[in-house]
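Readers outside the structure-tokenisation community will struggle with the description of the input data as it stands. I therefore recommend that a typical entry be quoted early in the introduction. An entry of this sort, consisting of the sequence and the corresponding backbone structure tokens, reads as follows:
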Amino acid sequence: MQAFINDAIAEGHCPGAVLWVEHNGERFHSAFGKRALVPAVETMTEDTIFDLASLTKVVACTPSVMLLVERGQIKLDEPVRTYIPEFAGDGKERITVRQLMTHTSGLRPGIETKSGWSGAAAAIEKACAEIPRTPPGTAFRYSDINFFMLGEIVRRVSGVPLSEFAAREIFAPLKMADTGYLPAPEKLPRIAPTEVVQDKKPWRGVVHDPTARKMGGVAGHAGLFSTAADLARYARMLLNEGELDGARIFKPETVRLMTSLQTSGDLPPRALGWDIASGYSRPRGKIFPFGSYGHTGFTGTILWIDPHSRTFYIFLSNRNHPTRESSIVPLYSKLGTLTAEIVGDFNFAGVPGVPADKDLTARIESPIPATKRAASRAKVLNGIDVLVKNNFAPIKGKRLGLITNHTGHDRERNPTIDLLKNAPGVNLVALFGPEHGIRGEHDVSKIEDGRDTKTGLPVYSLYLGKRRKPLPKQLEGIDALVFDIQDIGCRFYTYASTMGLAIEAAAENGKEIFILDRLNPINAAAVEGPVLAEPPTFVGFFRVPLRHGMTVGELAKMYNAEKKLGAKLTVIQVENWTRALWFDQTGQPWTNPSPNMRNLKQAALYPGVGLVEFSLSVGRGTDTPFEQVGAPYIDELAFAEKLNAEGLPGVRFAPIRFTPTASIHKGAECGGVYIMLTDLQAYNSVDIGIILARTLYQMYPDQFPVDKVSRLLLHKPTLEAIKSGKTLAEIHALWKSEQDEFMKRREKFLIYR
């Protein structure tokens, strides 16, 4: 990092800089190059005060707004005109505070600064005369107008200017002594100058941004000055969920709200004020995960924070000194990538600038090693949690039919049935039960209609003979269907098939359908296996791979669009979840989705082990279904030895004998293997299933009914390859083109990045 910064200085990208890198309290900081080049050369020091430019948005304005949100004085989804009544006309009355904070208001990037206007009041007047370029909430356009309007909201709600509010409520409690607007004269010698103006003197202690300067130096979008050490205290507070050294600035939930994804659909991922993964997020680099956040400033300033690994970096420069022709853009991605690499392996020994009293020579472990994965620091909310948080607004006033089962509940395990039944303004009139019933108590092939004893509501079975979707007669008194069931991310798990048929029924009968989305418990980053290549069945409903890497909400969007159903579909999205997170990293409570799906390990193995469940025992009728396979004819020692010789990553096989009390080989002692997952990041579930089938067919061709694998595999070329003893590499080659095509299809419908 030092080398890249020194190269940037030598190439004229900036005169100097200060770097601060911190991981789990271990830190490195250093100054580079020159603070000033004109009118005299000055050496850069670590206590240099910089014009933060647009870092003002997230260090002063955003936290000030969020404090007032936390106190109930500002509401994110209130129209801006609630707080600035003159902000109306031309559609502006529909712009909300949240849309200002996510740059989705539709307003232009800025107002003109060439005429002779001055003062904050004049800027607000000009903003109130703006005409939105796009309808609110439909497009992302980074805009300074958004944030100086937010600064004005803070002033009107709190009764004091933004500068005073931020100083009193944020900077003073955090002991950020060098942070504030309009720096005092005694601090001028430490301030890094910016652009040289007409009289051949640079701006120094005066904000560079022309709009903020004409507003008097105090604005929500620019005008703040600070040091690297002060910003480090601010970043540390955010990583500590709102508290630092005994000073609590925010409640933890406020920090999570402020820094979590707030945009959806085709809009770039943005939090409240903070950037996550838009065109402005180059400082994230190539390694930091989705869920890290940060911001940049025009003067050459960067702050990027990764809560997952408790890491942040600060880069402060005055790249527009002596002219604005210089650029640090080439540094952005390099610094972010190198900071993330530090988390994996970095030795501070002998590096200049390291405090002597810090022991920083030890290896810093990866934040999410294979066997020690970090939990999400944000509270993950499923669709039902979000619906409750939003007071059921999307479904109020509608007669509802709820498709659910025992997994339909919020974080506190309150059943979705009860939540909807008791919610004011919500009219729940019927229930629809999938395989295993609305309470998850049935493990039979046919479930009858009935009545829920607790609510008295009619229960229509969606697992009754050939009936798999709501009938027109059952939908006559219903305006909308609501689906809330926990899927496990496997193509042949039938709950998603029930959802697809419900979407069909909604489209055919002119009903709305709401999908209360839920996280994919085995993560939604990994995709495995062949794409469905045979006519759809109830256990092969979607044209997706065996492990599809999608949520039910994303599957619903794909199915509705690709089948051209035209259903009026709304997905209530999961919050604070990223695709790579497994269920045990989310804080959500586990409920067995079906009688033989009892833990996350079983769910992780199911897309592969499930392939052979019609051919031999997969442990149904034991305490560990899908963690073991066996049959009376198997020599468990030879079988385990042969499987382990395959060298599959992340998995080992132990010889075992067991007697299932249900399903195939019921009551018979079976030889087989117990499957141990040693590395969730490396294993491949579908490969396990294929190797099980291939090995069993090689060892017991007359006893292992290999053709029954096709019932869930639904890919004849793969079945033939298994029977002919093809290698995994050869089998994978059969899928490559179809998987590539699927990934392109899938990308259009992903909600979570």
Q: What stands out?
A: Residues 345-372 have pLDDT under 50 and may be disordered. Residues 728-747 form the longest helix (20 residues). The longest strand covers residues 26-36.
